[in-house]
Design a protein that fits this description.
148 residues, single chain, DNA-binding, 7 helices, transcription, 434 Repressor (Amino-terminal Domain), mainly alpha, Lambda_DNA-bd_dom_sf, DNA binding
């Protein structure tokens, strides 16, 4: 007969902490108290589709006085976007989908709240076929290629 040692306990299946538990503040503090190596990192804009980010300086500039402010899209450009979009029979959502932007971006441009972004302006120009920049705002876009 084999002798059994009743003082020792063997745990066959002990689950570790779940991902949510391992990330909790209490679990991190407990691991630090035990002297374990703990690595924490905060992911920026995790789980979001953020393409156009705002820096701290931009937010600071927004809070500044009148002489230090961002230029917004003029109402004239907003009206041209709206008329061009409606002449093509597109809703704001349709236009946004066509240029791979969010519908809120189109709404901001049409209402004059958006800070002009040349990439977005170029996409909208091509989608509605009207110029939005320069002297000829509202004129049809030339379809010819640019010569170098």
């Amino acid at each position: 007969m084999a002798e059994s040692d009743w003082d020792t306990v063997t745990v066959l299946r002990k689950k570790g902490p779940s991902a949510a538990q391992a990330k909790s503040k209490q679990a991190i503090l407990a691991a630090q108290r035990r002297g374990e190596d703990v690595e924490t990192s905060k992911k920026w804009a995790a789980g979001q589709n953020k393409q156009h980010f705002i820096t701290k300086n931009t937010a600071k500039l927004d809070r500044e006085t009148e002489e230090l402010h961002h230029d917004r899209v003029s109402l004239e450009v907003g009206k041209v976007i709206q008329q061009g979009r409606q002449s093509k029979g597109l809703t704001q959502k349709d236009l946004a989908t066509k240029i791979n932007e969010k519908p809120q971006v189109i709404a901001d441009y049409e209402s004059g709240r958006a800070i002009p972004n040349n990439q977005v302006m170029g996409k909208i120009e091509r989608a509605i076929g009207l110029k939005l920049r320069g002297k000829d705002i509202g004129k049809p876009l030339e379809t010819g290629s640019k010569g170098k």
